Amino acid sequence: MALIKTSLAEAIGTIAFDRDDKRNALSAELIAETISALDEFRTQDARVVVLRSATSGKVWSAGHDVAELPVADVDPLPYDDPLEQLIRAVKSFPAPVVAMVHGSVWGGACDLIMACDLVYADDTAAFAITPAKLGLPYNVGGFLNFMSRLPLNVVKEMFFSAEPITADRAERVGIVNETVPADELEDTVYRMARTITTRSSAAIAAAKESIRVL
Fold it and tell me: How many CA within 13 A on the CB side of residue 83?
């Protein structure tokens, strides 16, 4: 059973998480489908990829599937963990990956959001990184992913408290590019995506690669 929905139109690829019964938890199977979709979009010369939920539920993603997490208080996620592979796939994709966020984002899904190039959200969005609640250590790469996007004091607050950051504040601190009303979110995201498709793909790919290796 497919756990994502995909489409390609006007050189814009869309990957929609479709595991609503599990609040779009990032299982190894869902992640494998997502990486495969990114690979397919690469061969189809997609100019932008939009990452979203297939439904307008309260949760965009509950994060790493709890049943697949490492043992608490023992080890952080290893390099070959499926979520780590997905984060690398998003970062190395040659075109912008844009997150369209309706609902709350938890744990490892927050890490995935930080890996996206652009993030747009509506006022239902909230962002929380939850290892402190689960008793899980976090790997250095994960910390660097947050620190590359956010002020250090905000990173510390998120990891130490595990409390959600609201949509309005998420825009202020730099998690999201723009927060818009829910009924404008899709139009805002795809309008930006269409704008990107009119720009030089080579220049954008070079810029993304340069930023990635800084």
Answer: 27
